[in-house]
Amino acid sequence: MKRHVVLVLGVLVSLFPFYWMVVMATNTTENILKFPPALTPGGELLVNAGKVFEEIDFFGSMLNTVLAAVGATVLVLVFDSLAAFTFAKFRFPGRNALFVLLLGTMMIPPQLSAIPQFVVMAQLGWVGSLKALIVPAVINAFGIFWMRQYISGAVHDELLEASRLDGCGFFRQYWHVGLPVVRPALAFLGIFTFISVWNDYLWPLVVLVDPDQVTLQVALGQLNRTHDTDYGMLMAGTVLAVIPLLIVFLIGARNFIADLAKGAVRG
Question: Is residue 220 within 8 Å of residue 234, measured between CB atoms?
């Protein structure tokens, strides 16, 4: 019983920032800043949302973000799972050294790579293009590490050996033997990548030089003025930006849990 009480309290604490975001989005700035502040939702959500649409190209920025997040997620799932499958189930010279080098890249803060990455994008002529958001995100060290660990335990060597006897090459083993087993890991990696790209602020701010062609996070940052910030408008934009993430998370988490349950039943 005590454990359940602690878990419920933990859930309530975790949900309170989202509730407070909704409260701020539905109230005026005056009600937000007064003491004691309003603790219940108000009726200003449509007014605040209308101000967001007047201040920024919300749907254009959202389209840019959707294209970047979906493109990066699909490519990450393909290339990271391919690399992880190779690291986990095939032996080749320098495999361990390459994997250690890959793990070492996870220790480098992304801020340090922003300038050299921008130089590369400029040389390719991709500055200001969504390709500059999608392509650098394709090879994800965490994604390869995560998939490699999962594949090592989930894909049995006996299955691969049997597929080789049946004449399957590398890509057929990957597609027909490996991928069906690791769907839960792919679902998690897809959710993680989509949310990471969707919430990224620094790199889109640096590489998308046209202020009219930005991602949603950069556009919302334009609402946060130094003086006279309309917090109701700002939080309304944040609520609208969070809704697609909630949809993706609920769909992905549902598939993740369903695949895990299937695996448990088979086991």
Answer: yes
